[in-house]
Every structure is written in structure tokens, then in C-alpha cells.
Amino acid sequence: MKKFRKVLDGLTTSSPANPGGSPACGSAAGTPSTAPTPRELEIQETLMSEHFQICKTVRHGVPYQPTALAFDPVQKILAIGSRSGGVRLLGRPGVDCHCQHESGAAVLQLQFLINEGALVTACADDTLHLWNLRQRRPAILHSLKFNRERITFCHLPFQSKWLYVGTERGNTHIVNIESFILSGYVIMWNKAIELSTKTHPGPVVHLSDSPKDEGKLLIGFESGTIVMWDLRAKRTDFRIYYDEAIHSASWHHEGRQFMCSHSDGSLSMWNLRNTAKPFQVTFPHGKTQRDGRKESCKPILKVEYKTSRNSSEAFVVFSGGLSYDKAGRRPTLTIMHGKAITVLEMDYPIVDFLVLCETPYINEVQEPYAVVVLLEKDFVVVDLTQSNFPIFENPYPMDIHESPVTCTAYFADCPPDIIPVLYSIGAKHKKTGYSHKEWPVSGGTWTVGSQTYPEIIITGHADGSIKFWDATAITLQMLYKLKTSKVFEKPKSGDVGRSAELVEEDPYAVQMISWCPQSRILCVVGISAHVILYRFSKHDASTTITSLEVRLQCEMEDVISPSDTENTPSFSDPSGHSPQPQPPSPRSNTPDSMRDSIPCLKVKDRMIRMPPGYQAELVVQLLWVDGEPPQQITSLDLNSAYGLLALGNCNGLTVVDYLQKTILLCMSTLELYGSADPFQRLTRSPRKNRQSTSDFCMRGLSNFHSDSKKRIRTSYQSLTELSDNQVSLDLERSKSPTSAPYTPSLHNDPRGTGEPVSNLRSCHYSPVFYLLDNGYPSRRAMLQQLHGVSMYSHDEHHITTYSWSERESRENSFSRSRSSSVSSIDRETKEAVTTLQFAESYGRKSDTLPTPCLWVGTSLGLVLIIPMSIPTDEQERLEDPVTVAPTGTVLMLKGSILRIGFLDCGGALINSPYEVWRDQHAPDHPDRPRKRKLVNFSPSSSQEASGDGHLAVVCSERQAKVFFMPSQACLYVHNITESSFVLRADVVSVCNSVCLACFCANGHIMTLSLPSLRPLLDVNYLPLTDMRIARTFCFTNGGQALYLCSPTEIQRITYSQEMCDNLQEMLGELFTPIETPEAQNRGFLKGFFGGNAQTFDREELFGEAAAGKASRSLAQHIPGQGGMEGMKAAAGGVVGELARARIALDERGQRLGELEERTALMMTSAETFSKHAHELMLKCKDKKWYQF
Prior knowledge:
A five-stranded antiparallel beta sheet has the order 8-9-10-11-64. A five-stranded mixed beta sheet has the order 35-36-37-41-39. It is 16% helix and 33% strand. It has 1188 residues and is an alpha+beta fold.
């Protein structure tokens, strides 16, 4: 524990904490503090570096780009492999584990060691891996790398330790699962086919042992050749040469016939008695044409042939096979049961499917009960026991990506009553028609951990929908869904519409979410420059939605006219800055140059019936101005106690009173400074060519696209495209301009155009971005998408190069210091509002008591404090105006401002004031009038205890500072990064203390102590290779964070050592000891005439003694970690040794217990046998031979 002391007496704006000597601390004027000097500040910090560790907790959503599927019928565990090398293991709700191959190679096939707690994966890099599932964090035990052949198919018989591996050359190898070493027994392709055959049979596409005789192996080659190989005799029993390519094969459980699926959409049935030709060929979806021919059909990629006791007819399930002439039909799964054919249409292409059966033995009646269907972006299970084949309700959150996720918000330690309320409302809108049976994937065990608290994740989507998820105890369950598009009128079919031109097919896409769990007020920012405010109610209501239209556009006269600079608006009468909303123009197809004062979307202006849940109350829309579209909103904050909503973009700031439905403040960022602008952009005399330059400075972001139909490109574009495009590697390391030399190829890029320099200059978000982006288009694209500002179109991505001299001048101007680059600031006066925060604070140095304030952070690293006067009486609050008076107070940091937080003088986090939720549509009670109940909001007369001041934590893309208020003295400063920049930052509570958590563009996750800003954690966790991660990464309390790791999956992580230690307890157990079901008694006659399958000894055939050793150059054995990763993650040092010893002891005890049980069973069996033998001896003792 470390104690920090800092005496604030005599501290002025020239504090040594500011190394640059610029007025970064205190006001812009640099005057000494006139506020009363507080007592000595004593804060004891309890957080140490030992409290932090990065660890992945759980992954939600359907695996992205799935490739393979497997199921353990005894353990009832499901495995899904993906193209990126991931493996998801699913059991009962709560049992959900994600594993990752380090190579990142695609998973081709999965094979469970049934009821053994192990899994074999075959990857695209021709490597086999054996995973140990008997631990909460599965790990690789063995790997086998094939050097000369490509793996195409694998098959592992039930209760066998020998894995058959087919290759692209047509050979079949055999691997010992226990040692993961190749056997010397090889089935060569040239031995499997006839010597007279002139062509290669192609890769192995199918391997399976005969249900009738395990010593016979059925090998299917892609060309249509099928071979039954006798493993004992090392020769073929029969060969089948078929005209059509084979995709899969499936046995009847009796082993006398099998079925194949082919590339022409046909199914062929073969009988082992006569293999000269199939005894049945069917085209399930191919109709006979007039000329007698079958119409051409698509390939049947997989077929499964299963029998049932209750029916003499078998189930035939297959995917594909539709006729080619039916264009536009969705992918289908066909279920044939007798003469009945059921076609199930799927929303996405089918990757793989499995028929789940009651028995793991292939030579028994299979009794199918469900079909697991793996789709490209979904995962469904069909109930086969009911005639209408309903699907099961999926307990996993597989529909996160139903519409592409565009933003996320994470709230830990929510009010305990909010989750049941949201669930009860959302349950009324759930789909029906699901199967009534229990979810069949029910393996593993999971219990709610001891340390759980309510957690909620909110996702915003491209179609304008909002989803609330219950994320308590590492699970994820959807609670409630809200559609923001219902607030607006639907565009007419023939009307191109303003919104369609702006954002193409996603005009309602959610860009930002602000939610107050205590007051249950929700604010949603849309891509069409609109904000919707929702209130929660348990009752339905019929109301009209209030619409406010804001003309937030900087006028160029503010810069070029000397008289305008002299007549800077006075801050004494803030009400004078409330613009009057202008009525929208009725024109919808108006040319761009004539559009003025019209919003992008039209709000419904009639009475609307709203169901229980979140009900829209207010919509704020930014308007077109002089043919220019509104810029996207970059920042938002809401305070329920104040009844205020603030929003900002690259043009300025707007403050809305949502209780009185009025606009309080609408000003450009330059106007907010007044005479306190540190760059003095308003007081310089204009040059002769100032007008044209200013035009681009003030309207550059929108003017850059004046000739383009795509006015506002969606900042979530990389999020909505499911192709998962990788951003340039320049993004990954994010070098500073001074450390990365410019390459001449950029200057001589043949794709560059003769665009005017001023026009190109105007397309940038702020000078800070030049400091950050090295001039690479990919960096600007990332910042554009991250902040939601339209800098340029993705279609025009390749023309954003500019002249060498221009880049060099920018480099020189920003490599020295921020404060000295006034000329560059003049060229880039487009200053965006990047963060907003309401709080009880001090607007001036002379203030003795805190008042409601709005802290405004900009893209130039400046922080403005705007105090407000809010009536405290409820009736006065609804009638009297709220006064907003910008004071010109300016604080300064390096880089764009990202986060502002507040601590009291004891170092504890100060929460923003809020209003306790009350249902406005609930029936009135005369005894209990509904009044506003405010928390942490005190009138000035009762704030003596709060008059000691507080600490303000401000974090930018490069730097973090702690200021003492009201003196505005900078107590601590820390340069977070020099070679990169911070993407996300938040002040969070961890281990009963507070820290600053940061996520950088180079993949580093860092935590800093508060208030001293000591580095506590710095881990290179996640190299930023995709814009999606930057846009969706968010921190929350309790040491947790999340991000969208793929278009369909949410990855949750923790940076708390305490949670890492408790993670083993929170995760589910994948393996539970279950006795393997006994095989059915085959009977004397079946056993006698059914072949000698039971006496087949694979060890005798494939062992080293009989088959010899395989060639060392064929495959390389790689020993795995044996599950040590999980133990290392759980503990280290002596604790780790104890944990390993305990696990080894537990496994030894478990084995001893199993041995003891087997010994007891053997003794019981021996006693029974002895008893029966003695009885038989006594019975037959005195009988003659002819009496038997």
C-alpha cells in the first residue's frame, strides 16, 4: 500500500507536471488560482500490479465461418470447428468453451473419443491434434504433422484407439490415438483399385468400418470408386466403379447395404450380395421431364441412413440435391421417412449436419431423435420424434448477428431488479412453435459461481434494433429487443429518399448507446444524425413522439469576418443561443444544392400505440444546411437527474432539455471558447485568400463529397460486411510520424489524382489525426469509423494521397509540440466534440461549491467546462428555463479526448447524479404522488460537505491527467503511449478501488492507478487487425471487458487477477463420468452366423510388432502441453505446483476408484459363476451320459 501526498498550496498553471510549458493546466489565461486552498490531499492507493492479469473468459455467438461438426452421444457434448482454427464445445446452458489452434489453420474434421473426454481435430495444415476435455480449459495432448500428404477424411471407430486417416493421394494411414504415432499399416491407393485401372481414384472422401464386421473398411474415393478393404487379409473384398462422384456414404445398421450421395443429386443404394450395380437409384428432387430424362440437380453433399424400432421405414436425411432450375431457393435439409418427404428451408447455407441417435453402437438399431444442422451463420436442432419436425429453442445466443452488430455497451453490477423486468417484457414477444422436448445437447455440469452480480450487455445493430442481454455469470441470454426504426415513417417504394442516399440500405443503423440503469432511460444515436430518447414503462401507452430539429452547421462567416470576431456572442445570456427549429421542407427528391432545413428521416407525427417496454419520447435530428448533409454525431451523454441530453459532432455542441422538450444550447466548438481559445483562431486577421480556405476549413468534411451521391458513409461498414476483411498491417503497429520514414511510392502512387491540396486537406477529421495516422489511408479509415465522422468514402479510399511537400509540412508542424502549431490549427479548424460528461463540478476557479456542469472534450485535446443552473423544485424544473453559461475554462492534453471521470478527495469514484426510475404511465395513487427522486444531486445550500473539491481524470489518445478542482491544478500526468494511440479508455472500479483502463491501437491493454497514474498493467494482448474490434471494445466495472472478435461472436475478457483465479469455478465441466451403455445382446444365432467381428483385434494388426514402424519423414509427432495451460492460467509458482499435484492426485484417486469398482464387479461375477457352476455340477452329478 502506497500513500501519496501532494500539497496544493501555491500551485499555479505553470505546474511542473506539464512538461511542455504550455497552458495545459488551469485556464487558458494562465492566472493563479483564486479558489481557497484546500487542506493537504491524502489518498491511499490499494491497487498493485499483482491485482491484474489478462485472461479470456467466455465467447458468445455462433462460430464465425464454421467448417466441421461432431457430437459425443454418451457425454452429449457438441463440437464446432471454424475456418480460423477455433473449436467451440457446447453442452447444457452454461457449458460453453472455446479453444484455439495456435496455427490458425482451418478445422477440417472433428472426431470425439466417445465417452473418453478427448477430441481429435484435423486441420488444413495437415496436422492432427488430440485435445484433453477432462479439464475446464481443454488443452492439446499430442499433435501429428503430415509432411508429404494432405489430410482429407478421418474416421475413429467406437471404442477403438486406431484412427483411420484418408489423404488427397488416395492412401489411408492409421494412427494410434494413445501415442499419436503412425502405424506401419498403410492402405495404398494402387493396391485398393485394380491394376488395370488407368486413372487415379482421387482423394479419400469416406472411411467407415462395416457394422457387420469391424475387420472390413469401406473406402470411398472422390471419382466414384468404392472399395471394401479386408484389414486382416490386406486385400479388397469388392470394388465399385460408379459414373458420378461420391460425396458421402452411410451404412444400414445390419451391415448388408449402404447408401451413397452423388454430385448429380442422386442417392444410390448398394447391397453387399451384388455390387455390380446399385439396386436402387433415386433423384429425390429431380422430376422426370417430357423426354424421359431427369432434370439436372445440385450435388447431395451428405446423407445419413438411420433405422428406427418403431417404424419399419428408415430415416434418410440429406442436404442439397435441389434442381438447378429453381433459382433463388434457400438451402434445404431433406428428411425422407418412407414415402413422406419433408423439405426444411434454412436461412443460410448448410455447412454440415449430424443425426443424433440413442446408441453409440453402429450395429444396433439407431433410433434417431434429432438432427443438428450447422449453418454458415446459425446453428439449429430439428426434432425427429414429431411428425412436423419442429426445431428446438436454442439456449445459446446464436442470433447476436441477426443484423450486423454496430456498437456495444457493457454494464456490470446493475440494479438487481432490471433483469427480471426486461425478461418479463421480452418474454411476451418470444417466438412459438418450438419442440416441447428438452434440449438434446445436455452434457457437462455448470453451477452459478459464488461471486456473481447482475450484468447486462447491449448491442446495437445495422437495422436499427437494440438487444438487451443478460450476461450474469459468464452466460448470455437475450432479455429484450427494441426496434428504433418504428419511430420513423417508412420510405415510399418509389421514393429514393434522403436517407437512402445518405447511408444506402441501413438508414437506421445504431451508432452509439447511452443507458442509465437506475432511471432506465435509453438514448440511441443513429447513423442518419438522429438521437432517440426512450423511457421504460410496464404499461402500454398511446402518445405522440416529440421531434426537435437542430441546425448544427458552422458558418464560414464566423471565421472570415473581422466584425464577427469582435462581436463574439456574449455568454451572459445563454438563452440567446437557442436556435428556433425551422419547419422541415416537404421536398424529398430535392437536388442536393437546394436541400435546406430538412432531416434525413421523417418522424411519425401521429398518435402511436406503444407496447410495454421502452417507449420513444423524443427524437433530435440534425438538419441539412445549404445542400450539405448533417455530420454524424460523435459524442453523447445523458443525465436523468438534470433532465438534459448533450450531443456533439465535428461542427459543434447541442444541449437539449428533454423534460421541457427544448434546445438549450446549439453552438460551434469555436464559439464555446469565446476569448479563451488557446489557438486564438477567432482573433487573427483574415488573409486575402481566407474565404476559400475558410470555406474548406469550416465545411470541408461535407464539401469533400459535394459531387458524390454517398454523402455519409456508414462508419460501421467493416462491421456490417461479414467478409471479415483485414485492415492494413500499418494499423497493427501504429507507428508515430517521427519513427516511420515516408516511402516514395506513396508520393508516386499511380492511383493518385490531381485533387486540389485544399480539397484533400479538408477531408480530415482534425490535426490530431495527422499526428496519429502517418498519412496512411488505412489509419484515416480507422479513425473515421471509430469516431463516426465522414472523412471520405470507402469508394474513394484510393485517392486520398496528397503532395509530398504538404505531408512534410504537416509532419514538421506537429512533430514539435501541440501548442506551437497554430498555423496548422488555422488550416484545420474543424474541431469535433469527442466526449461529453455531465457531473457535479466547478465551472470556475472561484467557485466554492459544485454545481451541475457539462465537461466537453474535443479532438484537439481541449476540455471545456460549461456550468449550468438547474431549478431544484420539480414544478419549477418543468416550467423555468435551464441556463447554460460557457465560461471559457479550458484544460489541455495531447490527442483527442476520450474519457472524463471524477474522484472525491478520498480517491473514490464519484457517480453521476441520477433520477430513480418511476413509471410515468402507471395509474396514479392519491396517497403516493409520483415525484422525481434524485440521487447524488444536491442543491447548493446543502453542499458544505462537498465543498472540499474533487479530482477530474481526463484521458486522451496519448495522455492522461488528473486535475484538482476548482483550482484546475494538474496533479499527475502520464504519457500513455508515444508510438500508438488509445482507442478506448474508462475509469472503472476493480477490487474495491478505482483505476484507468486503456486499450491501444497496437493491441496493448493498460491499467493506471488513480489518482497517481502509476502503470499497473501493460500487456500486448490483441493486435488490432480489424476495425470491428476498435469500434466494439468496451470496459466495465469488476475488471471485465468485451469486444466483437468476429462478425458473429462476442469475446469477454477479464483483466482482474481475482476473476482469473475464480474463473475455474465459474466455467462449466465438459466431462462427467458416465458409464458407457452396454451393447445389446446379439443372440446365439446372430453371433454365430453374423461373422467374427467381436474377435477382431486391431492391436494385433496395426501394432508395431505386426505392422512395423511408419516412415519418419511421413509424419512428425509433436508433444502437447498436456493441459498445463489451464493450470498456469489458474496459478503460478508454488500455488501452481500444489494445483498440479492436487489434479494429479484427483486423477489417481479417480483411477483407483474405477479400478476398485471393476475389481468388485469381477469378484461378484466370479462368485456368481462359481455358484452356478456348483449348482450345475450337483444337478448333473448322478446323470448318465444318455440322460443329457
